[in-house]
Amino acid sequence: MEATTVQSKPQVLRRVFVWQLPVRYYHWVNALCILVLTATGFIIGDPPALLSGKEAYANFWFGTTRFIHFVAAYIFLFNFLFRIYWGFVGNHFASWKNFIPTNKKFFQDMWRVIQVDIFMTKKEEEGAIGHNRLAGFIYFLTFIAFAIQCLTGFGLYAAMSDWWLPGLFTWVPTLFGGDFMLRQIHHWAMWFFILFTVVHVYLVFYHDYVEGRGELSSMAGGWKFIEEKYFNKKK
Amino acid sequence: MLTETSTHRKTYYEELRDKGYTRRDFMKFCTLFAAYMGLQSTGAAQIADALKNTPRVPVIWLHFQECTCCSESFIRSSHPIVADIILDKLSLDYSETLMAAAGHQAEEVRAKTMKDHYGEYILCVEGSVPMGGDGEYCCIGGKSALNILEETAAGAKAIIAWGSCACNGCVQAAKPNPTQATPIHKIVKGKPIVKVPGCPPIGEVMAGTIVHIITFGTLPELDGTGRPKAFYSKRIHDSCYRRPYYDAGLFVETFDDENARRGYCLYKVGCKGPSTYNSCGIMKWNNGVSFPIQSGHGCFGCSEEKFWDNGPIYQRLPNFPGFGIETSADKVGMVALGVTAAGIAAHAVATNLRKHKMVDHLIDEGKQSDRDLKLD
Question: Which residues from B are below 8 Å from A45, CB to CB?
Fold first, then answer.
């Protein structure tokens, strides 16, 4: 892997179709929803002191903010349910097996990723084409966070709606001993999303920078570009 | 009272007529309560019918760890018949606060009601039961609250848990709960329990619950936590007359500002109306005069479980547990965000040190391409 050898014989990269179109749609819809939900959520939790000379009947900005929050919540929920479905029918890289540890090897690989990419104590190249094992497991945790937000959010929303779907969540406030606790958990969990997003975006840049496989663009076109020698190893 | 149980048991209507109420008063009462209970217009006749024909239901009303505010609220119920029917005439055989008897006599009355009306009487409990220190924190007539409750609950047809103490422990169950104050439903199993939370509950809500049981002979329809749906299915927020200010984003910022004077929404000064289920916004208090929000103070959620532990009264966002006072989830989150950003910066620097060969190799490859394309 010395620079000199490369100059004489450049790497051949092969195109691999990693993220199917539904996965990419899911990703960006989800990202947009989280952005909207977090922004409106902050406003709902601590509304800014806007001054207005108008009467209350001429204003509805806070109601509108909440409306946007609820619409985004519905989209977020359906998008999430769709992704779970796609975990069973999608391609190899979309499969639920990437996220839920089912064997010891999964944890060994996770530890290897931590050594290679987080502590950088081990010098080797990253092998994973789709999600590496650590990323897969973290996404599994985010799915749990999604579920918590959906449960607490729709649990709070249920009392305001006559529709059967939010009605499915009426048991949630009972379980948590009322809306107080639900509201708090809903607020705390939001910070997980913020921290996740920051780390997630950084790591996408990191992988693209270090590996040069088109990590960043893969969520647009679906392609990653993998070295020929990786294919030879597999043979 | 003692003799009556062995002979003819008077109906509620007979008792009221004896007391001097006219039929007109009686019908007014029935109509009022049909409305409170959310019944259709024929409901008033149903109530009248039931009160005319049913003999009085014996009631034992126990007081444990409580402040008697539930009883106080109850006797201030808007219609005078409420106090009369329940306290004088509802055959309130035993109630520490209100009965005339004392000492052994009183205990005898309780024992007799339990024996004569086994499986028929309604047990009303005001207050929580201390489970700590062998129950020594609350003893009446030489018996612990737990003993009395278990003994009395055994023959009860149904139990009504009055107020937040009996429903969720209220203030004495707040951390660290030194007496291990415990709500009724965690002690008595296998009996139908109606929870009527609030500190205190609204008098009409209490009366409405009892009238329902008398009229229909069944418990009112309950929600998931055991509260009557007629009174606890809506949040204060949903029936609050200041709600339009909330939707318009017009909030009181401090209690002494212009917005407070204008009567804007109290959301930002900690009103718990959006997470509290009760009827205050509709029935109001003291014969419909007012309720906390109407007098300029936010709801503090007295009918919700653990309302004492669920954050400061005048703050929207509660303190984050384990980080001391004045530390909200947002402050903790911002610190976590800062730590994460620092970690990322450190990692980015480390990447350029530890992985520079990989990166150099990519850069060299790019330069090679430049040369091959004759771009130099």
Answer: 316-317
DSSP sequence for B359-376: HHHHHHHHHHHHHHTT--
Of A65, A159, A187, the CB nearest to B317: A187
ipTM over 0.90: no
More confident: B213 or A195: A195
Q: What's the CA gap between B130 and B66, in Å, rounded? A: 11
Contacts of A46 in chain B (CB under 8 A): 268, 316-317, 330
Of the candidates B189, B168, B158, the one whose C-alpha atom is nearest the C-alpha of residue B232 is B168
Token reading at B244: 């339009």
The verdict on pTM exceeding 0.95 is no
Size of interface A-B (CB pairs under 8 A): 150
CB contact under 8 A, A180 and B304: yes
Picking from B244, B317, B350, the nearest residue to A46 by CB comes out as: B317
Please give the structure tokens belonging to residue B193: 């329990």
**CATH assignment, A11-46+60-234:** 1.20.950.20
**B37 C-beta neighbours (distance < 10 Å), count:** 22
What does the mean pLDDT of chain B come to? 85
Q: What percent of chain A has pLDDT over 90?
A: 46
Which residue did the predictor score with more confidence, B77 or A156?
A156
Assigned architecture for domain B236-295: Irregular (4.10)
B333 touches chain A (CB under 8 A): yes
The top-level CATH class assigned to B4-231 is: alpha beta
Q: Name residues 274-313 of chain B within 8 A of A (Cβ).
A: 274-277, 301, 304-307, 310-311
Q: Do B248 and A59 touch (CB under 8 A)?
A: yes
Binning pLDDT at 50, 70 and 90, where does residue A226 land? confident
Alpha-carbon distance A38 to A32, whole Å? 10
- Sole residue written with tokens 């009686």: B26
